[in-house]
Amino acid sequence: MSIVDELLANSFVKIRNPSDVEAKLHKIIKDGYNNLMILADFDYTLSKFKDLNGKECLITHSIFVKCTQEVKPELSEKLKVICNKYGPFEHSTKISREEKISKMEDWWYSLNYPKMIFIT
């Protein structure tokens, strides 16, 4: 049984292009976890907005900016520019829902993380 077959055995898992996902998963395994960066949450849907002391937590994009500062400063700077460009739109109440969605999609597609994998 393939990796994708195992995933699809769960009724809550839906995959548009199983063969593409299978190839991407094999590439991730082949390349190793040292070459993988995953962006899974950037709008507080999974992470906390504030910690127990009431201090605002970093969004995932900001965590990548901070974590790449020592390892790849040039990547950190690029991510910071993108985060500063799109971040203000994320929680804005002054733009329409359609414009916000458009900006968030632009943000997502403008990213150029190393070995970025889009599973669709």
Automatic annotation (TrEMBL):
Q: Which GO terms describe its cellular component?
A: cytoplasm
The lineage's top-level taxon is Eukaryota
Which keywords, in A-to-Z order, does the entry hold?
Answer: Hydrolase, Magnesium, Metal-binding, Nucleotide-binding
Q: Name one GO molecular function term.
A: magnesium ion binding
What Pfam families would the database entry show? Answer: UMPH-1 (PF05822)
Query: SUPFAM superfamilies recorded for this chain?
Result: HAD-like (SSF56784)
Q: Which PANTHER family match?
A: 5'-NUCLEOTIDASE, 7-METHYLGUANOSINE PHOSPHATE-SPECIFIC 5'-NUCLEOTIDASE
Q: What is this protein called?
A: 5'-nucleotidase
